[in-house]
Amino acid sequence: MTKHLLILGAGFSGRAIGDVFRQAGFTVSGTTRSEDKAEALRRRGIEPIVYDGGTISGALAADMARTTHLVQSIAPGRDGDPLFRAGMPAIPALMPRLEWAGYLSTVGVYGDHKGGWVDEETVLNPVSARSVERVEAEGCWLGLGKASGVPVAVLRLAGIYGPGRNALRNMEEGTARRLIKKDQVFNRIRVEDIGRSALFLAERHLGGVWNITDDEPGPPQDVVAEAARLMGLPCPPDIPFETAELSPMARSFYGENKRVSNAKLKAAGFEFRFPNYRLSLAELHGSGRWKG
Question: d(Cα 41, Cα 8) in Å, to the nearest integer?
């Protein structure tokens, strides 16, 4: 029986997940909001379906009917997760063959822990409105898993980077900045390891909550310095966070400071290909894939 993955929201992470599942023998489809992006998905081997997060078209309904594995990557927004909004058919009715589902969330649901460690058992304390929405959506998906018996995994993602989206490219384009905020650390995750971890959980029919992050939370300015070293370019000057010009969203990220543990995923047997940013940036630079 053919295994079929449907990705709702085939963006940067969704496409990487699709690549890994295709290599494992799955057929893969993915939704996008525009016809322009549909052709790029098709060239990648992902069958595109145009979907605005609202009405389910006949094409999407037909694809859902054959879906054995689902990844939901569409942000919920104020109206909640698109598949749990009022009037939406029940997911078991839409996807009767479903064997596993993954919901892409964020480590932002933990809120601020003043640099302390958090794991999957930590009480959630979301600060931003978007993280509050994610907590609600996580509850819907985990509730579906309990009610249906289908394993549903919530993947809490750290800061995502990879080919075409990384500090090396920022250095070349002159947009890299070393923002300095005392004791600030972030977790990060290479996009290919998001894809690999999703397949790992799916193949083992594992549900529940999983932190998807590399081994080494650290100051963001250290990543910029390492990229500059690899590129042989001068390191950008330090900019005090307090005086930096930042968008409200960028500033909100710095309002949360925590170290996120990946011990649960590693204990289950997962091995990161890119366990820290130094190894990862070196691979991106050496392979030339940093350009995307």
Answer: 13
Residues contacting residue 105 through CB under 8 Å, at least 6 positions apart: 134, 137, 138, 154, 155, 156, 157
How far is the C-alpha of 289 from the C-alpha of 292, rounded, in Å? Answer: 5
| DSSP string for 108-174 | GGG---TT-EE-TTSPP---SHHHHHHHHHHHHHHHHHHHH---EEEEEE-EEEBTTBSHHHHHHHT
Which pLDDT tens digit goes with each residue over 65-114?
999 999 999 999 889 999 999 889 999 999 999 999 999 999 999 999 99
Q: Is 212 exposed, middle or buried (0-12, 13-18, 19+ CB in 10 A)?
A: buried
Nearest CA to 137 out of 211, 81, 89 is that of 81
Region 4-9: mean pLDDT is 98
50: which strand partners? 32
The sign of the CA dihedral 63, 69, 74, 80 is positive
State the pLDDT at residue 93.
96
pTM: 0.96
